[in-house]
Amino acid sequence: MYVKASYKSSGVNISEADKFVDKIKPLVKKTFTKNVLSGIGNFGAFYKIDLKKFKDPVFVSSVDGVGTKLKIAADLKKFDTIGEDLVNHCVNDIAVCGAVPMYFLDYYATGKLRSNDAVEVVKGIVRGCRNNNCSLIGGETAEMPGLYHGNDFDLAGAIVGIVEQSKIVNSKNVKPGNVLIGLQSNGLHTNGYSLVRKIFNDSKKLNQTFEESNGKLSDELLKVHRSYLNIIQSSLGKFKINSISHITGGGIIGNTKRVVPKDLKINIDWNAWKRPAVFKLIKKSGNVSEADMRKTFNLGIGLIFIVNKNTADEFMKHLKSKKENPYSRKYKPVGSINH
Fold first, then answer.
1. What is the pLDDT of residues 14-27, one digit of tens each?
2. Which is higher by pLDDT, 247 or 20?
3. pTM as predicted
4. Helix/strand/coil (H, E, C) string of the chain?
5. Homologous superfamily of the 14-167 domain (CATH)
6. Which residue, 21, 89, 238, 320, shows the most beta carbons closer than 10 Å to its own?
């Protein structure tokens, strides 16, 4: 028997994609500045840069995803935060280099496009872009039945920022005796969720309340990844910052060693801050070793500044004035740099 085939019968619904684009156009335009030269729909996005503001500008770019935090969002049918997670993660990755973001592009892939859920994702991306003064100038939505199953989807983003070459932050100024000043994370951010999902593997466990928390575990797990852009820029404008580390997958040491010369050693005082309750719950519920906790999670510290020891006290006063105080009763450096 001859079966008439169509793209829709193969699982790809172009009309649903068109409906999705129509829904997000007014949302995305809210992120546009005078630098954006075209709207949504062209084959490329155009962004004009005013280079008169810079003496020796350098573009800084990064690409990343949200990992299996997406599965938590899908299981709980809450899609409005993960887009903001994505933007903030990417913003932080270039902000620690001294850059400010200019524009962002996203990639959303799924087996079956559900436009309402996808719109919620874009709302989060738009919110993240607006909060970071970044334009969402383009993206791609891919419907790929057979590759993604059920409610599975993936989300990735690319960001481009700019920094004066003389103001690039890297490892070259890090010296023995420097101290590490940590800033508070907003929970897990976007890392460690594969382990979390293995431990809390059903909706009943995800929706439990836990000690020292007034809400559900699910709410804690979907807290938005913090953006540190403003505090980084504020600090760079007033202090000599030798290096900055964004604490993502690999933990505090795994990420900080990326911005420290290889011949120097990082010493962390693991008792310098109060570890948030969610990490205690994960450790206890999964019988996770302390070594694995340190390698997998940020443990409450989402960003680390590396500064000269003689400016540390003044710098911490600056952080306090900006209401950056992750240390409870123990406001002090989280570590140091040694030979």
1. 788 888 888 999 99
2. 247
3. 0.93
4. CCCCCCCCCCCCCHHHHHHHHHHHHHHHHHHCCCCECCCCCCCCCCECCCHHHCCCEEEEEEEEECCCHHHHHHHHCCCCCHHHHHHHHHHHHHHCCCCEEEEEEEEEEECCCCHHHHHHHHHHHHHHHHHCCCEEEEEEEEECECCECCCCEEEEEEEEEEEEHHHCCCHHHCCCCCEEEEEECCCCCCCCHHHHHHHCCCHHHHCCECCCCCCEHHHHHCCCCCCCHHHHHHHHCCCCEEEEEECCCCHHHHHHHHHCCCCCEEEECCCCCCCCHHHHHHHHHHCCCHHHHHHHCCCCEEEEEEECHHHHHHHHHHHHHCCCCCCCCCCCCCEEEEC
5. PurM-like, N-terminal domain (3.30.1330.10)
6. 89
